[in-house]
Amino acid sequence: MTVSIFEPTTMGPHKLQNRVVMNPMTRSRADADAVPTPIMADYYGQRGTAGLIVTEGIAPSPNGRGYARIPGLWNAAQVAAWKPVTAAVHAKGGKIFAQLMHTGRVSHLGNMPAGAKIVAPSAIALAGQMYTDSEGMQDYPVPQAMTEADIQQAKAEFVTAAKNAIAAGFDGVELHAANGYLLEQFLSPDTNKRSDDWGGSVAKRLRFVTEVAQAVVAAIGGDKVGIRISPYGMASGMAAYPEVDETYLALAAALDKAGLVYVHLVDHAAMGNPAIPDGFRANLRAAWPRTLIIGGSLDAISGQAAVDAGRADLIGLGRAFIANPDLVARMKAGAALAAPDPATFYTPGAKGYSDYPALG
User: Fold this and answer.
1) Residues 92-113, mean pLDDT to the nearest whole number
2) How far, in Å, CA of 289 to CA of 214, rounded?
3) Is 271 exposed, middle or buried (0-12, 13-18, 19+ CB in 10 A)?
4) Is residue 67 annotated as a catalytic residue, yes or no?
5) 208 pLDDT band (50/70/90 cuts)?
């Protein structure tokens, strides 16, 4: 029997009004102190008819804030400013998870608070440049290889940010272990060249992500913790490697044991990345016993087909939500979708952010 993606469902103990997830998307609307601005409550509230919203990447600490104007969750001012955001989504019946994103080497000091430092598993710079508000485009610096103290500090920062998220009214957190950021930097042998207990074998490269997940679960409960992964992705200097399937299936087993509520699988094939092999998808689906979210250029038809085939429980959509705050209603009605303006994806202010109209 076909179950419509527009019908209510559950994700662990969370009651969702539909199976449509608003994917995390960097929008760079926080202030210089990483404090969310009032228009962010407008933006997320407008899109609160999604079953689940996963926020843009939120820095768990000053060291994790690599991009210009991304928000944080490490102090009281940030927690207070997130409360209107979560309230606006809840008023529409939606659930909202905070995506915790430590950027690691994908950073520049021009975007970071005073006293912050750029850290990574190994001292390997990312090729290319990053935008800064103060200096424009700048080369990526060489990060500092993390000491044991740095590793323990970063784990603690994820825990603090997760606790702050719950205090701010979020329904849970998503650990961003995709797109080449710190958690994925530990997973990949291309960015993790360590020869200690945090690198080398697959098991050692899994350790940091697994321990972060375990610590966050211990702090706020597994039913409030999900994770985003991007095997075969190429974002921020990533690439597939011989042990990629082994790595992520072992990670899935570790996360299952830790008790996470969902895995969010990212597929960037439509953006030029290698396709995720069907065999890996099937193996992940078989290995993961709870909610599986998939994303990657889906629409109502392809998303419904994925649910019908048992390939996913929830379907994630990203850019379609930018210009269509009422995306779920539009898809359900078969209405035309508005096109977003890429020139305003990351610019300050309401233009191209909270000023897209709903139908009617």
Assistant:
1) 97
2) 17
3) exposed
4) no
5) very high
